[in-house]
Amino acid sequence: MYVSDLALDDFRSFHQLVLTLEPGPTAFIGPNGQGKTNLVEAIAYLSTLSSHRAGTDAALVRRAASGTPQPAGAVIRAKVVHGERPSVLELELIAGRANRARLNRANARPRDLLGILRTVVFAPEDLALVREQPSVRRRFLDDLAVTLRPTLAGVRAEHDKILAQRASLLKSARAARASTASMLSTLEVWDAQLAAAAARLIAARIDVVQRLRPWVADCYGRVSEGRTDARIAYRASLLAHEGADEPDPADAAAVLAAEEPLRDVPATAARLETAMGELHAREIDRGANLVGAHRDELELFLDALPAKGFASHGEQWSLALALRLASYEMLRHDVDAYAGDGEPVLILDDVFASLDDARRHALAGIAADAQQVLLTAAVDDDVPAALAGRRFHVTRTESGSQVQP
Ligand SMILES: Nc1ncnc2c1ncn2[C@@H]1O[C@H](COP(=O)(O)OP(=O)(O)OP(=O)(O)O)[C@@H](O)[C@H]1O
Ligand SMILES: [Mg+2]
C-alpha cells in the first residue's frame, strides 16, 4: 500500500499542508527543527493512533505564536491506495476532547481506522526497544498484534481498564490492612475478568512472536553480516509463577514448547485465575497486580546472551533495526491483510546518519524494494543512492512548516 495524498491542518509545526506522494522512495530533507519528523509522525499517527515520540495528544495540535489565534484542533487526512479501491482516512484531534474520525467521508470511530493504513517506523528512539524496560517491548508486540488484527484494540483497552481497576482495589485492600470477605469476593470477580482479557492478549502476542521470529533472525543476519544469531522469546510471568524452567533460547523446540500451550486462551485464562488466587495475599500486601500479560517480557538474545546488558552499542542498534525490519517483512507477508495488501509504508526517520556503511547499505537494500518509503534526513548526502527518488525540502517559516520540491 502507499499514501497518495496527505493533508494537515494545524498539526504540530504545520499550519496547512497539502502534499501528493508517490510509491517508491521519497526523502524529506531539512535542517534540525524544520518539521520533517512532524510530517512523518502525522502519517504514523493515522496508522496506530499513537505517536512514535513521547508526548500527549495535546502536543500534536499547533501552538500558535503569541498574539495569533490558537487553533482548537488538528486534522490529519490521507488517501491510502491499496487493493482495488483507495481509502480516505481522516482524524481530528481536538484539545481536551476525544478524537473524531472519518473513513471514506463517513463518520467513524477512531478505532475503525486501525489496520487500514499500515506503517512501520524506524527512528533513533528505537534503541529503547533493546535497552529500556519491558513495557516498551510489550507495546511493540501489542501494536503489531493490533495491526494484524484491529479488533484486538478493544481487548487491549479492556485489559488495561480492568488492570487499573484491580490495582486500585488491591491498593484499597492494602490501605485497609485487613481484607474482608466482601473484598476477597470482589477481587475474585476481577481475577476472572483480568485473566480472560490477559489470556487473549498473551495469545495474540505469541502469535506475533512466532510470525516475527524467522524474520528477526533473517533481518539481523542481513544488517550484522551474519556474525551472530538474533533470537526472541516470550517470557510469561505465569510460567515463572508456576515454577517452569526458562528454556535455553538456542533450543528452538524448547522455546516453542514453552510458548505453544499459552495460545490456548481458555486454558491460559484458567491458569492465570489459579495463579491470581494463589497470589492474593502478596498482591494485597504489595497493592499491585503480580501476574499476567502486564508482567510479561519479550526477551531478546544475541546467540544465547540477553541483548540487554551484554550487547555492544552497535549490536543494540542492529537489533533494534532488525526488529523493525522484521515487522515490515512480517506485515508484508501477511496474506490475510485488509484489501489483500499488507505491505506497510516504511518510514525511516533520521536513521541513515547514525548507521555505519554496512548497515546503511543493508537497510537501503531492503527499503529499496518497498512499495513506499518515506525518509527524513538533514542533508541530501545522508540519503543512500539506492533510495534516490523524489525529494522535498522542509523549511519552517513564520506561517508554519513548508514542504517544497
Ligand atoms: N504542537 C506544536 N506546535 C508548534 N510547533 C511545534 C509543535 N510540536 C512541535 N513543534 C515544533 O516542531 C519542531 C520540531 O519539528 P521536527 O521534530 O519535525 O523537526 P525535524 O525537522 O525532524 O528536526 P531534526 O532534524 O532535529 O529531527 C520544533 O521546533 C518544535 O518546537
Ligand atoms: Mg526529526
From TrEMBL:
Keyword ATP-binding found: yes
Q: Where is the AAA+ ATPase domain?
A: 22-398
InterPro entries (UniProt xref)? AAA+_ATPase, DNA-binding_RecF, P-loop_NTPase, RecF/RecN/SMC_N, RecF_2
A GO cellular component annotation here is:
cytoplasm
Q: Which residues does the record give as ATP binding sites?
A: G30, P31, N32, G33, Q34, G35, K36, T37
Q: Which coarse location class describes where this protein primarily resides?
A: cytoplasm
Functional description taken from the UniProt entry: The RecF protein is involved in DNA metabolism; it is required for DNA replication and normal SOS inducibility. RecF binds preferentially to single-stranded, linear DNA. It also seems to bind ATP.
What's the family?
A: Belongs to the RecF family.
Know the name of this protein?
DNA replication and repair protein RecF
Lineage of source species: Bacteria, Bacillati, Actinomycetota, Actinomycetes, Actinomycetales
